[in-house]
# Entry
Amino acid sequence: MNITRFVSTHKKLLLVGFLLLILIFLATFPLYAGKYDVRVLTFILIYVVLAVSWAMFSGTTGYMSLAPAAFFGLGIYAMALLQKELPFPLIIAIGGALSFALAVLVGLLTLRLRGMYFAIFTFGLVVFMTEIVQYLETRLLGRHGQSIIPIDNDTLFYTMIGLAVVTVLITYLIRRSRWGLSMMSIGGNEEAAEHMGVNTIMVKVFTFAISAAFMGAAGVIAAPVLIYVNSNIAFSLYYSFLPIFMAILGGTGIVYGPVVGAVILGYLDTTLRSSLFNYFMLVFGIIMVLIILFLPSGITGLLPILRDKLKGVISKLQKANEGEPHANT
Amino acid sequence: MPILEGQGVTKLFGGLAAVSDVDFHVDQGEILGLIGPNGAGKTTLFNLISAALPLSSGEIKFKGQKINGLRPHQICRMGVSRTFQETKVFPNIPVLQNVLLGAFFGTPAHVSGAAAASEANQALEFVGLSKMGATPINDLTLVNQKRVEVARALATKPELLLLDELMAGLTSTEVSEAMELVTRIRDMGITIVMVEHVMKAIMGISSRVMVLNHGEKIAEGTCDEVSSNRQVIDIYLGEETHAGS
# Structure
């Protein structure tokens, strides 16, 4: 079993190599792929950011946030309104900062609520944003909707890679830090966490805000792909539910779980939705129900089970090879 | 000087007084047993001290400093830690991480990763779980989950430890082990207040006992004084003491 030994001793190295390969694949993708494929992959990366940052907060603390669309839409509108005034990178930062600020405000108001109430409030936030933006838009600007000047495909693609890498990296670093431990403890038993010295309100509000900042930044980069938006498009609840489904499909117990879910559903969403819309949603719904029922830890939750099964099979084979006399030792 | 003091401590739920005008004190280094029938207000008093609930009126002082009005995490960092009647471990993280959390967040100072790890391992060893650091919480028996709670509380480096029915649901052997554990914690210099229904434990290791009934303090004193108090015998200990257990 030289291969298994090699894998276990060089685990870190192999992981870094694997991640580098993915990065190289992504970085060179526009060189050999068509324009349409680059656009599909850009959208998948947008979903990766949304799903990973959703799981960063909700997957660990157990607070079900339905607000991704509110922060994503805020980013889209930041881009739509500031595009002619400011450089692109600055708008990305502003989109993130606006979402961060909105999340702090909402978090301070609502993160004392537990369970259902928080989920319902965040759902309400998306609806509220849709209405208030529409109202302000018609009142102050006298128009409905905004057209966005397209940006070159490759620029958007590379910017999105950058944001996705930063999002995954920061989520990973937070998860393995003491801050991540405190988030898990809130998900495990909030009352006990409080009594063990965790400033639960601060941890919740700050984590919620960080995750919102990534969603807002993703909105800024997604805006030019959409070309035209109004408040119903920008704050569509689809952008709340799809990332949540992705994260649950992939598994929220581990950082790359939502990435896996986002790649699978994101691909299906962008390629199949236009052609098979009705059937797609039907099949999609059934898959979600089955996963929640039978695979609550998602696809990545299957891996440890499969690994144990595989190990069992291998050791059985080994025993069979060694023959009967050694079977008892 | 008492480490913990309460004056006129009162908690009203609607019109009902769960804890009513209770004065109490806990002396440095002692084990104070807190007893009383179900619904007497014992756990409520713990919740008031650790700020899980706000006081309706009265004042609680820890080392001479008023602590009511603070938030639970602040009280923990001042040096008051606790366990829970229905064990509240973190089921989603392994044993060692449960205890690490207390080591990282339970003290006012910034704790390095290495220091926290050694603190957590020490606490686990102290309660006899040193080999179970990587075990998922749900694989532990009730008594071991209670030990994790104690280790987690110890990792916050408390000066005062509130133990809420540590022995409930344990077998007779486990109760003896738990009594020994509580005594060892006291010997480390940590003051203990314990709510307990297991009389053997209370009478065996408490230096003093306080009795609550319907939210009021009805007796306080040494084990002998309390167990010979007429009122206590009538309303709480009842037949059990007459049977001579």
